[in-house]
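Morning run. Coffee first, then this:
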Amino acid sequence: MVLDVDATSAGEKRVAVVGAGITGLATAFLLGRARPGWHVEVFEAETHPGGKARTSVRAGYTVDWGPNGFLTTAPETLELARQLGLDAELQPASEAARHRFLYVDGGLRRLPSSPQAFLASEIVPWPGRLRAALELAVAGRHDGEESVHAFLARHFGRGFADALADAFVSGITAGDSRELSVDALFPRLRAMERAHGSLLRAMIARQRSARRRLRAATATDGRQGSGTAGATPAPRIRAGRLTSFREGGMQRLLDVLAGALPRAPRLGAPVNAIERLPGGTVGYTLALADAPPERFDAVVLTVPAPNAAALLRPHSPGAADALAAIPYAGLRVFGLGFDRIDVPRPLNGFGFLVPRGQGVRSLGVLYSSTIYPERAPEGKVLLRVLAGGRLDPAMLELSDDDALAAVRNDLRVSMGVVAEPEFVEGVRWERAIPQYTLGHWDRLRTIDAALTDLPGLHLAGNAYRGVGVNDCVREAQRVVAALVEAPR
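And here it is:
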């Protein structure tokens, strides 16, 4: 997104951004570029920026506790990184990370990479594969909202949905496929259905299009030659590639964002309340925990939905109720380091997810040192284990020792790892990922309608229109455009 940076006619405007996660920091940074004459303050209750996009570096291991990268399928985060001068630090995932697995029937089975390969795979028993193959002929349309499970069952059969739907969503939201709205969480699937009727037909068409683009890009690269002599080019990032940063993981992006702001984020500065200015004046006063109240022309709330609900309740109970109705999944995340010889399985992929009912409690295991080889010391491996989620909330109630014992047992069952890890760190996120349950779009319409009565107040973040890093940056772009275009 390109925004006008000529602020000569805009005057100074005071904007408060509440929350210093990805969305909040990107909002402040992009707004500072679009309107350098404005006064933008970022308030964060925690003592460090970044929200859940944190990374620890210790004993040669680099562990992301939130997102472990962003997809270059969309340009938002890649563009932001380049605006921050991080081109040379971009780290695409390894080629091996393209391979993903499911733990099914006591073994790791590779996820097929094409519709044709799926129909030959043993992940779903043959009656389920036969029914899935009939999707080209029997796929029907559905006018109302559907859960992810219902959508997949309608297209590919209940056997397919029962086997794969929860694993399909657990790596994204740690959610329950019977609760989650396919329309809100995967709008592209609905668009594919509208365009092609059959999802298999749509996927085959996309494969052909991707092959044509690859051939065109290869031909273009060949004509361009080697580039400017003596220049150090930024790494070439292929579209659709998971990408992070070489030093410091995803936290590198957040640290550079925070350091690029004209005013440093005010950390350890929770906002206790928001008051409207009297007399119909557009603007708000923020009541701060340990500082005098401050007045702003506009406020952007990028905090989790329940926090936003508490701040909005005095002004719009309807919006607050809709915000409070957005549930969250809790997660335990463990980073475990081992000697390579102590992990008997080949680590030739991204990792694996676990459908329910397979005798393994964890949601999945990421081969972090395969995805990004520099994440572990030479001769070591780093595994990142995710556990809990909507289908296993009791995992969050375990002590740290009991939770670690549970995931170590999962590694023994699924990967044959019996050795004591030489490196152990873990975090417990009570509200890790928002859940786009059935009725999500109705809730958003209620919230958006209520905000029309609160001019200058905006909501943004991963609770609304997408849970990924690109979605958060896109939210920041949307809000910055609204702020810049708003009348004084």
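The first strand starts at residue 14 and ends at 18. Good start to the day.
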